[in-house]
Amino acid sequence: MATNALKKTGTIACHNYIFGYGSLICSKSRKITAPKLEKKSAIPTVINHFQRSWNARIEFDNNDNSAIRGWTAMGIQPRRGHSCTGVLIEVNNEELANFDKRERGYDRVEVDLVDVYPHCQKDLEEKSHYGLCAAAERRNSKTHSCDDGNDGVKVWIYLPQKGGDGANEQYPILQSYLDIILRGCLSIGIDFTWSFLKSTHGWWNGDCHLFQRSGDKATVPEFLWIDDRQHPLYIRADADFSERMKDDLDGVIERVHAKPLEKRRPWNALLVAKRCDGSF
């Protein structure tokens, strides 16, 4: 279960929002945890001074095969000067508790309203979103404090408790998981999708700590990223959607992260490699 790292809350505020930056961008995925949310809109949002990357280590509950120990999910970390796109989801007390259970291995922490912005200004102007309007009022107040009357608005974000150095052969990126995120991004729009891909770190040449060096040339390690669409390892995967949309999804990814995509390997290829080296 996720824990609130800032404060142990006894009484939950009147208006609670979760900032979803990974699988929670997808309405179908949110519905699994909170069915009533499917009919509620999630507002495209940007949070400043946070960086999203592939850095959350997830252990398999029942690992029947020793090929990998787990997988690498989206994580987010406080980082000045960076920003992260996602969606703002209003939840009630019960839904918040359910998401805490879902996001075990993460801490739920409160985000300063000053750092919460609409992805596009029209999202604030046209929809008059209560949470985003409260954030704007907080920024416009002289003190930037809770004295502005918006202390009943809370924006929460889930930070991974166990961050790693990124994906590797024991904790690879799962395509079935990424497909769910992209499904959510594309339902919002292509510009939002580009923003998501470009602002996510951990799979391209800019993140040197995730890449092996050969002379002066950076190379993507084998099995950093596996294609498990045929045999999904992600618990909330949608195999039918992935199979139907795989060419379109790969085309979107290739526009931004072509080099890592070239090194993506089928799940079966990883199994064969493990058997050949005697590790499986």
What does this structure look like?
With 280 residues, the chain is an alpha/beta fold. About 7% of the residues have low confidence. The radius of gyration is 19 Å and the shape is globular. The strands form 3 sheets. Strands 1, 2, 3, 4, 5, 6, 7 and 9 form an 8-stranded mixed beta sheet that branches. A 3-stranded parallel beta sheet has the order 8-12-13. A hairpin with a 2-residue loop joins β10 and β11. The longest helix has 24 residues. It has 8 helices and 13 strands.
The H/E string reads EEHEEHEEHHEEHHEEEEHEH
List the uncertain runs.
Answer: 5-12, 208-218
> What's the rounded overall pLDDT mean?
83
C-alpha-based Rg, rounded = 19 Å
The major sheet is characterized as: 8 strands, mixed
Q: Structural class of the secondary structure composition?
A: alpha/beta
How far is it from the N-terminal to the C-terminal residue, by CA? 31 Å
So how many helices?
A: 8
The percent of residues in helical segments reads 25-40%
Bulk shape: globular
Number of strands: 13
List the helices and strands and how they pair.
Elements: E1 3-4, E2 15-20, H1 27-33, E3 43-59, E4 70-91, H2 93-102, E5 106-111, E6 116-118, H3 121-127, H4 130-140, E7 153-160, E8 173-174, H5 175-188, H6 190-198, E9 200-201, E10 212-214, E11 217-219, E12 225-227, H7 239-262, E13 265-266, H8 267-276
Parallel strand pairs: 1-5, 2-7, 3-9, 8-12, 12-13
Antiparallel strand pairs: 2-4, 3-4, 3-6, 5-7, 10-11
